[in-house]
Amino acid sequence: MPNVPTLAEAGFPDLDFRIWIGLLAPAGTPAPILRQIESGVAEILRDPATRSAIATQGWDIVGSTAREFAAFLDAELPKLADAASRLP
């Protein structure tokens, strides 16, 4: 897409934008339910056929824990909010 500027050219030189997918649950979801979801997702992501299908689509599998994903969101969302606030 030759006429579409890069993020740096569009005024966001420090934005390291990545597409990611994660699961979120409503605040107050009981911890046993969260652990069950986390365990189930980890099990699915260990399956070679699932890993292959995801990798074939060009995705990297991180498979972090809920706590690690929360820390990622704590760092990522403010950067995205800042970038969105600077859009024309």
Write the layout of secondary structure elements.
Elements: H1 31-46, H2 48-56, H3 66-85
Low-confidence stretches: none
Largest sheet: none
What is the H/E order? HHH
The overall pLDDT average reads 90
The end-to-end span amounts to 21 Å
Q: Structural class per helix/strand content?
A: mainly alpha
Can you tell me about this structure?
With 88 residues, the chain is an all-alpha fold. It has a domain at 31-85. The protein is 51% helix and 0% strand. It has 3 helices and no strands. It has helices spanning 31-46, 48-56, 66-85. It is flat, with a radius of gyration of 17 Å. 0% of the residues are buried. The mean pLDDT is 90.
Outline:
By secondary structure, the chain is an all-alpha fold.
Q: What features would you highlight for this structure?
A:
88 residues, single chain, mainly alpha
